[in-house]
Amino acid sequence: MTVIVEAATQLREQLRGAVIAPTDAEYEQARQLYNGMIDKRPRLIARCLDQADVRAAVTFGREQGMLVAIRGGGHNGPGLGSCDDGLVIDLSLLKSVRVDPARRTVRVDAGCTSGDVDHATHAFGLAVPFGIVSTTGVAGLTLGGGTGYLTRKYGLTIDNLLEADVVLADGRLVTASATEHPDLFWALRGGGGNFGVVTSFLFQAHPVDTVYAGPIFWEATHARAVMQAYRDFLPTAPEELGIFVGLKTVPPLDPFPREHWGQRACAIIGSYDGPAQDGARVMGQLLEAVPPPIFNWMGEMPFPAMQALFDPFFPKGLQWYWKGDFVRSLPDDAIDTHIAQAAKAPSALSLMHLYPIDGAVHRVPKDATAWNTRDARFSMVIAGIDPDPDQATALKTWGRSYWTAIHPFNLEGAYVNFMMDDEAQGRLQATYGENYPRLAAVKAAYDPHNLFRVNQNIVPTPA
Ligand SMILES: Cc1cc2nc3c(=O)[nH]c(=O)nc-3n(C[C@H](O)[C@H](O)[C@H](O)COP(=O)(O)OP(=O)(O)OC[C@H]3O[C@@H](n4cnc5c(N)ncnc54)[C@H](O)[C@@H]3O)c2cc1C
């Protein structure tokens, strides 16, 4: 304990932000992560307020030989924004967002959520492609790749990254872009938090204002027809339509129709970036191929409202167990397997989603960024979710057996942001494919001693 107090004092002298130790009153609150299933107890939490704080924290962690975790939004499934008995470099107070409307760019500090950015860019009729829940951290989402409603039209989040400021393992601050440290810039786009602490990102934004968007739910008996129709419709659908299919449960609360509360369902969630009448017409082509839904709540709304639509269902502290895969095709046998496995979901919140990987994502060469699986058609996620910690084992058991049943239809790799920390050996290599050796070489160049290893870790291997 004396050692911790001494270390905390030493670090406090160097930082403008707070350094929180287990003896501090705010420790319990400060160590909490989004996923209630994860219960990590860091030795110190450094709440950085600027780049100087980040540099001091990195140097301190390295010199003290501490395990170092980097925390952006704290949303990561296995809690890779924290660690046991180490130093957490907590960026959550770095919240500035600066929009340049003339250039249509936005500079985003590393503690921002996607909701923070949507709020700032929407004022200028602009948006950056992020994910579908607005409380998710921009940092972890971006460094893993980033998929969302705007992805079919504008690509992954990383495809819109112009530069990043990074504090390296040796404490240097560098800017990575197409022209400065291009190898680092290449690796940051999909390689996760392996290469340093990103303190800010510069993104290309796009004109996005109101969208025609929302959820449509069908009874589970129609799931086969809906999933088949979605699969066949997607390649013909305009890229303005970001749309995914899911197997879920009708939430047992108003305004959902009472007679369906708690029943398993198939859902399509879409967001059309364009005039509402065009969105309704495009969706009409899909809807005419399927039975009538329980409800269709697509309508015109500001884009940030769609981005935040699911936030109330997923507050901080729920239990989450994640499994993912990339998917190249969705044959009828796979659809039947999905339906059979989803029917066994242990809780109302547990879900399976298939997000499209097509359009603009396919137009970027596989070796242009670290994110490799650009020839997939979908990114699949299975998430066991429930508020009750006693359900944790049931969520894991269901997630694993669902994944075991469906994986033979899928590709070997998965989206790194949908992985827990219990993946089989070789999963990361499969995910990065032919890009893996280059990633390992960039890691060796920028973090040769693997200081940043609380992540989906790429082992430093000189070229
Ligand atoms: C409810 C929910 C919905 C989601 N929806 C989507 C979605 O639609 N699309 C999508 O692509 N993903 C989605 N995700 C997954 C999400 O991308 C990951 O959970 C991601 O890790 C979250 O980033 P974070 O900054 O909040 O996480 P953190 O837990 O803070 O960090 C995650 C990882 O990133 C590293 N990291 C964080 N900040 C930095 C930094 N500044 N510099 C270097 N490394 C850093 C950490 O070391 C850690 O390894 C969702 C997650 C949740 C919980």
Q: In short, what is this structure?
A:
The protein has 463 residues and is an alpha+beta fold. Helix content is 27%, strand content 23%.
Can you tell me about this structure?
It is a single chain. The chain has helices spanning 2-12, 27-31, 51-63, 114-122, 138-144, 151-154, 182-188, 223-233, 276-287, 303-307, 332-342, 392-406, 427-432, 436-446, and strands at 19-20, 44-47, 68-71, 87-90, 97-100, 105-109, 126-127, 161-167, 173-177, 197-204, 206-207, 210-219, 241-249, 264-272, 295-296, 299-302, 319-327, 351-356, 378-386. Helix content is 27%, strand content 23%. The protein is globular. Helix 8 crosses helix 11 and helix 11 packs antiparallel against helix 12. The chain has 463 residues and is α+β, with helices and mostly antiparallel strands. The longest helix is centred in the C-terminal third of the chain and has 15 residues, at 392-406. Flavin-adenine dinucleotide (FAD) is lined by residues 34, 69-77, 80-81, 91, 110, 131-133, 136-137, 139-141, 143-144, 146-148, 192-193, 197-198, 314, 417, 454-455. Flavin-adenine dinucleotide binds at residues 34, 69-77, 80-81, 91, 110, 131-133, 136-137, 139-141, 143-144, 146-148, 192-193, 197-198, 314, 417, 454-455.
